Amino acid sequence: MPFKDRTPREAALWARLKGRQLGVAFACQEFVLGYIADFYCPVAKLVVEVDGPIHDSDKQRRRDSVKDRALKWRGLIVLSLPTTMTTDEMVERIDRKLHFLQVERHLPVEEPHDKEAA
């Protein structure tokens, strides 16, 4: 199965997930158990799918159901996000899921501002 082009919503979400911005590594369009996951966080065993209108057809719903069951059967968590959500809302949902799963994260440390240098 070939990799698909990212949608604008997937590209915007990837810009917010790459580089461990949520304290964990994500992969984009990762091959997971024979399926292509939109985003995958190995440490959390979390698959994130961004579902647009194409996922509303009966045929695609059946495919998605088979994929989700296969991934869940292997111990992965599948989080499906509709494209009607904003990127900020998607990031918030992913962040909450990581918190719920109690995933250890290593967030970037901000450098303290030197008040005396000003």
What are the key terms here?
Endonuclease, Chain A, 21% strand, 118 residues, alpha+beta, four-stranded mixed sheet, 34% helix, globular
Offer a concise description of the structure.
With 118 residues, this protein is of the alpha+beta class.
Could you explain how this protein is built, in words?
This protein is α+β, with helices and mostly antiparallel strands and 118 residues long. It has one domain (8-102): Endonuclease, Chain A (3-Layer(aba) Sandwich), CATH 3.40.960.10. The chain is 34% helix and 21% strand. The chain has 3 helices and 4 strands. It has helices at 8-17, 58-73, 87-100; strands at residues 27-32, 35-41, 46-51, 77-82. Strands 1-2-3-4 form a 4-stranded mixed beta sheet, with helices on both faces. Helix 1 (8-17) crosses helix 3. The chain is globular, with a radius of gyration of 16 Å. The mean pLDDT is 84.
- Element-by-element helix/strand order: HEEEHEH
Q: Report the oligomer.
A: single chain
Number of strands: 4
Could you say how many structural domains there are in total? 1
What is the CATH superfamily label? VSR Endonuclease
Q: Radius of gyration over alpha carbons?
A: 16 Å
Q: Which sequence of strands runs across the widest sheet? A: 1-2-3-4
Blueprint (SSEs and pairs):
Elements: H1 8-17, E1 27-32, E2 35-41, E3 46-51, H2 58-73, E4 77-82, H3 87-100
Parallel strand pairs: 3-4
Antiparallel strand pairs: 1-2, 2-3
Helix pairs in contact: 1-3
